[in-house]
């Protein structure tokens, strides 16, 4: 059966209909096909496998093209420039440098025994791709593509792609017991492509949700970033998939607990803290993973700051209008613990902490001092914060969110920024008017923290006057502070 023709008729698309044209437009794919021809010349077959095949069928660029073959990797090593990663050759895997690219070449193999729920205890080579495909995680990741543009499908992956279904290969429970990471990969693919999880696969996720405890922090970090770079909406869908099968409460309990915390409908018609967070993610206009994770965690301090006020605005125990005063500051140590647990880099942590700490300022920008606005705008993390401002506001929907009013607030920030200039220019102008040496000359008794206090107050004065001050004005201000 010509699987390519069947797929095109069912899907009514032509992802590889003009194979020659596709090869000419994609040098990476063309190089892979040339390499496959040379491998087959050694006496076997070679197929592009895994995600690259799926992506080609979905009309997406092929990334990380992997090749599977029944030609022994030791023979391949005799004919191509190769390098091994760790003990990969022991598992029948070798990296081949060919043309301008590196390709992972793996022998067809079967696996058995997964004592750590992650890696096989036993690996042995097999002769056919049919047998190799049985060990793979999902049906649409178990496709092969030969160098002539024909899809080889033993696991009904083409049909599942057509029906937008994520399905484990064979017995879902066996696949998840083999590798616990697959539990969250299923959710990621479902969220990324907008697919449904096949019922038996979903039930296996529910039954084996505890196995997510075996997934390393680094793997969870990587999975979060992979879905967060798709879109905020995809991240929200991903978290909801995990929540529905009982994995979220184990993987990110700080997010799951948000279900238990309400909002006032008049100010948050989208719902409580969890629903607000999901709505904020769906309102995100960014594909930057750090930005979308900042949006995810912006209200992580709310569950520890819930309070109530009566009709007069006075604290009232347990009833009245709910409030979360100080949740920004409370969220910082909570996210620090999450970030440390999931091995976030310092750069990632700093950006997300900045978004958490300052996200409430988006509601009251025009009430802030110019110096406070400049501090936000001059930060390298400003783009993340700006998107968080908008997502937080837009989550509430019409009529509470007014796009023009929000745009006016952001324009106000840019007006101040343009007036004072970018960070280097601003600091150069400021240092001419006030610096530590100048303060010590004017007030010889000033030391350490006192110099810092005077400098900060003087900078505030200069900014408040839009730099329309003379050096004499500045000196007089500094001297007056010591009286």
SSE layout and pairing:
Blueprint (H helix, E strand, L loop, with lengths): L2 H9 L7 H7 L1 H14 L5 E4 L1 H7 L8 E4 L3 H7 L1 E3 L9 E6 L2 E7 L1 E4 L9 E4 L3 H5 L10 E2 L5 E2 L4 H7 L1 E2 L5 H7 L2 H13 L2 E2 L1 H9 L9 H12 L3 H13 L3 H4 L1 H4 L16 H11 L5 H9 L9 E3 L11 E3 L3 H15 L4 H13 L11 H9 L3 H13 L8 H18 L2 H11 L2 H7 L5 H17 L6 H11 L2
Parallel strand pairs: 2-5, 10-11
Antiparallel strand pairs: 1-2, 1-8, 3-4, 4-5, 6-7, 8-9, 12-13
Describe what is shown at a glance:
This protein is an alpha+beta fold.
Task: Give keywords.
two-stranded antiparallel sheet, Beta Polymerase, domain 2, single chain, 25 helices, 4 domains, 7-stranded mixed beta sheet, Hydrophobic Seed Protein, alpha+beta, 483 residues
3D architecture notes:
The chain has 483 residues and is of the alpha+beta class. It folds into 4 domains: 161 residues, Beta Polymerase, domain 2; 83 residues, Hydrophobic Seed Protein (Orthogonal Bundle), CATH 1.10.110; 140 residues, no CATH class; 51 residues, no CATH class. 52% of the residues lie in helices and 10% in strands. The chain has 25 helices and 13 strands. The strands form 4 sheets. A 7-stranded mixed beta sheet has the order 3-4-5-2-1-8-9. Strands 6-7 form a two-stranded antiparallel ribbon. Helix 18 crosses helix 20. The longest helix has 18 residues. The radius of gyration is 29 Å and the shape is elongated. It starts with a helix and ends with a helix. The relative contact order is 0.06. The N terminus is likely disordered.
């Amino acid at each position: 059966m010509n699987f390519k023709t069947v797929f095109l008729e069912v899907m009514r698309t032509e992802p590889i209909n003009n194979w020659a044209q596709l090869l000419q437009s994609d040098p990476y794919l063309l190089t892979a096909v040339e390499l496959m021809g040379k491998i087959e010349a050694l006496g076997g077959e070679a197929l592009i496998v895994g995600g690259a095949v799926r992506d080609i069928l979905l009309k997406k660029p092929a990334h990380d093209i992997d090749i599977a073959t029944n030609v022994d990797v030791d023979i391949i090593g005799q004919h191509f420039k190769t390098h091994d990663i760790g003990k990969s050759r022991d598992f029948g895997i070798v990296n081949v440098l060919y043309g301008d690219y590196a390709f992972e070449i793996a022998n067809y193999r079967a696996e058995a025994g997964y004592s750590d729920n992650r890696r096989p205890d036993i690996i042995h080579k097999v002769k056919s791709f049919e047998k190799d495909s049985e060990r793979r995680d999902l049906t649409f990741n178990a496709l092969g593509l030969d160098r002539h543009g024909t899809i080889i499908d033993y696991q009904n992956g083409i049909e599942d792609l057509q029906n937008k279904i994520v399905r484990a290969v064979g017995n879902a429970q066996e696949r998840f017991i083999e590798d616990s990471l697959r539990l969250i990969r299923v959710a990621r693919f479902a969220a990324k492509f907008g697919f449904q999880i096949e019922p038996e696969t979903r039930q296996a996720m529910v039954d084996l949700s505890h196995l997510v405890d075996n997934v390393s922090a680094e793997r969870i970090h990587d999975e979060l970033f992979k879905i967060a770079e798709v879109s905020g909406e995809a991240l929200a869908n991903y978290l909801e998939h995990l929540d529905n099968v009982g994995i979220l409460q184990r993987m990110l309990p700080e997010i799951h607990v948000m279900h238990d915390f309400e909002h006032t409908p008049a100010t948050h018609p989208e719902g409580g803290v969890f629903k607000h967070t999901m709505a904020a993610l769906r309102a995100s206009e960014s594909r930057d993973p750090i930005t979308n994770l900042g949006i995810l965690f912006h209200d992580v301090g709310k569950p520890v700051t819930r309070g109530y006020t009566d009709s007069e605005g006075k604290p009232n125990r347990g009833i009245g209008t709910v409030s979360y005063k100080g949740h920004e500051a409370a969220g910082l140590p909570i996210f620090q613990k999450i970030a440390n647990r999931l091995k976030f880099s310092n750069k990632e942590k700093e950006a997300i902490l900045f978004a958490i700490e300052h996200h409430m300022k988006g509601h009251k920008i025009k009430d802030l001092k110019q110096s406070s606005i400049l501090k936000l705008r001059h930060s390298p993390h400003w783009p993340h914060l700006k998107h968080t401002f908008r997502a937080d506001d837009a989550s509430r929907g019409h009529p509470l969110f007014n796009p023009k009013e929000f745009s006016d607030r952001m324009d106000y920030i840019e007006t101040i920024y343009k007036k004072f200039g970018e960070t280097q220019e601003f600091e150069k102008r400021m240092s001419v008017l006030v610096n530590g040496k100048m303060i010590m000359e004017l007030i010889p008794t000033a030391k350490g923290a006192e110099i810092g206090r005077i400098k900060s107050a003087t900078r505030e004065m200069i900014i408040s006057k839009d730099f329309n001050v003379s050096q004499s004005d500045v000196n007089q201000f500094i001297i007056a502070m010591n009286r």
